[in-house]
Fold:
Amino acid sequence: MTEEIKNEEQLNFLEEIIEADLAAGKYQQIIARFPPEPNGYLHIGHASSICLNFGLTKKYPGYTNLRFDDTNPVTEDTEYVESIKADIRWLGFEWKNELYASDYFDTLYEYALKLIQKGLAYVDDSTSDEIASMKGTPTEAGKNSLYRNRSIEENLDLFTRMKNGEFSDGSRTLRAKIDMAHINMLMRDPILYRIKHAHHHRTGDKWCIYPMYDMAHGQSDSIETVSHSICTLEFVPHRELYNWLIEKLEIYPSHQYEFARRNINYTVTSKRKLLQLVTEKHVTGWDDPRMPTISGMRRRGYTAESIREFCDRIGIAKRENIVDVGLLEFCVREHLNKIALRRMVVFHPLKVVLSNYSGDGEWLESENNPEDPNGGKRKIPFGRELLIEQEDFMENPPKKYFRLAPGQMVRLKSAYIIKCEEVIKDNNGNIVELHCTYIPESKSGSDTSGINVKGTLHWVSAKDAIEAEVREYDRLFKVENPSSEDGDFKDYINPVSLNIVTAYAEPALTESSIAEKFQFIRKGYYCLDTDATSEKLIFNKTVGLKDGWKPAH
Ligand code: ATP
Ligand code: MG
Structure:
């Protein structure tokens, strides 16, 4: 993947095209658009397209429009429109104009009439099966429709009546009259309009005919004088039709450029598949923290900066590949390390009683973030009874075990050095608590004890600790590329992608806000979940502290 990681000095192929266009005076400014279909929430692949479009028009003079490609009334919804806008803004980008392909329905209808008048479109009464069976194959020409040679007058009449609602769904279509033997199958009299008696989220019941993608996208680009219309590789064969329609309609010549879709492993990046996960309740919603949606990643605690950094690092490519989710997590971890507030939370508690401590009510201080000189400090209550992690104690430790063991000393983070004096067990031999002593002169920041210990443990004061629910996540799928496996992609869902733990948090965490990011010391990065209430703290694990994944250079 090294060759795809963007080298700072090197321009990507779109930047090269744009720089050449600007240098040649072809454009004074670059006009781009991000054109989501409002039929689902945006995912990490869309983030890459957003960063690309908005990034180019930030780097070069010009702007990016947000255009909702809302020509399919059945699957679209205003909930999606709102979520898309919120996600783009959260990612840190602002569009110049908020536009809707549906606002162009009148113009697109006029364009269709113009094609008919030029003898370049006809109404076809064939069923969709008939049309498909006459399409031919890549090596065999298709057959002309029986209705291909209708007169312009008849076509105008029928198309007007299609618009007026005289015909049922699927009974007729408007097709471009190009060439049924064309080497590009998409040029074999493509369908431009279909009848669909359906309510549209913006135009209501005004229309019962809707333009197909190819009859809407390029024309919308042209209406908006988009200079560089960037889309993904599956649209390469559409480019010829895109150009044909612009030429025949004699409208502004926008240009289409393609780059490879971005996919990441252990998940799916298709709105249709993500919708299935939501409706079939494999996840709790579009913003489930396990989802690769922007809203899911946000809820999980990923930052906009880290997603932008990820998109920048993967750059753009001309051929498809799957990017390791480890790279995304690496970017998240790198950013969180800089900004996360350090806090102490014990997950599997073991009680420690300090037999020689009588200073209950003492408050200690600890830095919020050693990486941030302006991060400030917080207060932490200390006490006679503490909780540490069960895994930080061993009754019979191996050599070089630097945590707590009988007779051994450790430092409690930002507090004192303690020594384990006695292990208390119940009747079944289970360890229930440890009796320890503390070294009063060893207080962090003013340690005069002269004792050196190798291990430092996180801890909380037993009586001050706050119970919190912690949601830990694993990959949503068991395999790297669930879409390419045999059978249904849902057969590969990881059955244990959520693990809920009750943990014990230092009291500073009661005042957490969703915007804050935390590092639970020695545990990982966490954030408050939107399900949390004033009565119940709920945290999501964003990402662990370390991972095997390393950048390629
Ligand atoms: P999906 O298959 O998830 O529904 P889509 O392409 O149908 O994706 P659109 O709403 O049409 O989704 O996409 C809006 C823009 O985002 C398009 O320009 C599309 O090319 C781009 N895009 C979508 N998915 C990806 C991806 N995985 N990587 C890069 N760009 C993407
Ligand atoms: Mg699409």
Notes: The chain has three domains: 2-259, 271-339+468-505+512-544, 351-463. The chain has a mean pLDDT of 95. The first helix runs from residue 13 to 23.
